[in-house]
Each structure stands twice: as structure tokens, then as C-alpha cells.
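Example 4.3 (complexes with small molecules)
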Amino acid sequence: MQLILDTGNLKEIQELSTILDIDGVTTNPTIVAKEKKNFVDLIKEIGEIIGDETPIHAQVISTSYEDIIEEATFISGLRENIYVKIPVTHDGLRAIKELKNKGIKITATAIFTAHQGFLAAKAGADYVAPYVNRLDNISADGVGTVKDLIQIIDRYGLSTKVLAASFKNTQQVIELMKAGVHSVTVPYDIAKAMMDHPLTDWSVDKFIQDWEAVYGVGTNTKG
Ligand code: E4P
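Answer. The structure with erythose-4-phosphate bound is encoded below.
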């Protein structure tokens, strides 16, 4: 199961990638715009933090087939390990098929139904990114939709990975992990919420207190 960070903020990426074993960083135009930086510079700076081995998923802005092909080709040349994110519009699906033939790595994005995910996988996408919380927000079943997609991809033995995205709470993440999701991309606050528990801090404080009551300040190595 891959854990990916859904942020373009360098401080957040630096902090979390130091602590956690991460499998990549995803951005989208909204995430990039928040940083108010040049897109190419930002991708390079993210790459310097996470290293050449760890992938970045970066999205096209273009909407027409021809422009998507041109922009995706440009993005794929920014670094070795990059997946070009393409929304699954008609032009997007058509472009995914063509770009796959050219050997460009693709993450199909803005997926809201299992059908869309299946069609993007069939077109050759390496990852398909369904948006969990955006579905939940309109009274649809985000987690259920992604579960269906995982089942379809696995049942037909497709090599595409489901990269669940758009999370607003850790429960959505855990439900999909239990269902065998191949990868999740989580924003900073969700990653922190997955890491932290007040009882962990309380327990550590208590261990130290009990130790120091008998042995005084110090560690095992310092006697
Ligand atoms: C993936 O990178 C998606 O673009 C992202 O998870 C969408 O998240 P949001 O619905 O919180 O904007």
C-alpha cells in the first residue's frame, strides 16, 4: 500500500518525508496555485526534497486533446520519475491512450465513478485517482465508489493502481485500506492525524516521569 502526500507545500513535504516512508507527492492546479510559485520551479524543489527515486504526480491545465498531449509531454520531461495527471474528460481519455503509447507515465484524475476509473485503466493509466470526499460532499458514497473500483481492477487483473484522493478524515482512509486500496494520497492534516494520538504522548510522558522518580534525569546510555 503506497502512502503519498497530497501537498505542494515544501515545509510540509520536508517535515513529513523526514518522518514517514512516503511513495510520492501529488499536486493539482489548486495545490500548486496555493504556493504562488512558478510551476516548474516548484516541481524541481519538491524533487530535491523527496529525491529522484520518489515520484511526483503533476497535473495538466489543458483541456483539448492536442493541448493535453503537448503539456503532458512537457511535464513528463521535467524529471525522470513523474506521472502526468490528466482529468478523465473525453479529450483526457483520448490523450491517455495516446500518451501511454509514447511511454509517458499517467495518473488519471478527477474520477467520480467506478466506470470512469475502469475506462482510464483500460486506456493505459498507471494510476486512477477517485475523489472520495468530493463525492461524500454531494451525499454520494465516496468510499463505496472506490471499493467498487478496487474490486473491478483486481478482478480483471489490471496493472493500474487505485490512488484514492480527496480525503477529509482518517476514517475514509482506514475504510479504503481495509478494502485493499493500492495507494492513498493524503494532505498534511490527515497524515498528522494518522500519526498522532494523545495517549502516545501521555504514555511517553508517564514513562519518563516514572523513570526519573527512581533514577533521576538521564537515559540508559548515560547511566
Ligand atoms: C489528488 O491529487 C486530488 O487532486 C486531490 O486529492 C483533491 O483533493 P480535494 O478534493 O481536497 O481538493
